[in-house]
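Section 3.1: Structural characterization of target chains.
Under the original work plan, the team committed to producing a structural model for every single-chain target entering the pipeline before any wet-lab resources were allocated. The record below documents one such target. The sequence was received from the expression subgroup and is listed exactly as submitted; it comprises 254 residues.
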Amino acid sequence: MTVLELRNVTWGPKRAPAILHDISFTLAAGEVLAICGANGAGKSSLLRLLYRHQAPLSGSVLVEGRDLWLTPARQAAQTVAAVLQEQPTDFALTTRDIVALGRLPHRQGMGPGARDTAITEAALMRMDLSHLADRRFGTLSGGERQRVMVARALAQEPRILVLDEPTNHLDIRHQLELLRLLRGLGLAVVCTLHDLTLAAEFADRILILDQGRVIADAPPDEALTEATIARAFQVLPRIDRTGSAPRFSFQLDR
């Protein structure tokens, strides 16, 4: 079932050239899409369209068949959750307080109910944060903060999960654990990844942007070709496909 669809989407700041051009793709429940490309290719701009931070200049962003910008904000927040690179300031909140914020779109009445509390605790446990639940957010390491933000998104119970470089700040083990978790959620997952090896190993599809245009949208073996990587990143790539997952090496093209 298609959960997310972009139809011929273009976006750019006011009175400036467009950054994204004619972007179209669909995403099904349970599918993981990795967005790759060089710095400035438009990856973060594309994500902002998906979690309703900025509206397209033309085209449509459809969530479960409905235009995202015609959907009430509360309902949209019940469907789409985002984990961004910019983490919130502390505000003296604990880890549990931060994760509980994910329940705000669902709350009925003034405070959290028993269901909200149970879902918050389950998200803490799923991200291995229960032992840090009462620690102030500002005292955590960068990797721990990243896991807290993912837990907050899980507490939101979305159908679509949008993540901007989710493996940043994480050590190797937690990178692998997080990506395995994302694959097992049954959600439509869209994430940006710099590491092509991780993208190739964990994504069902890879969408590659070059100067705001889609130049590949296919399973990893088809999207991550030497020609496409050379065009997107302006490097000379070599791909070793002798192992269970491809390994990439790069040289400058001049």
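Residues 104 and 110 are 10 Å apart (CA to CA).
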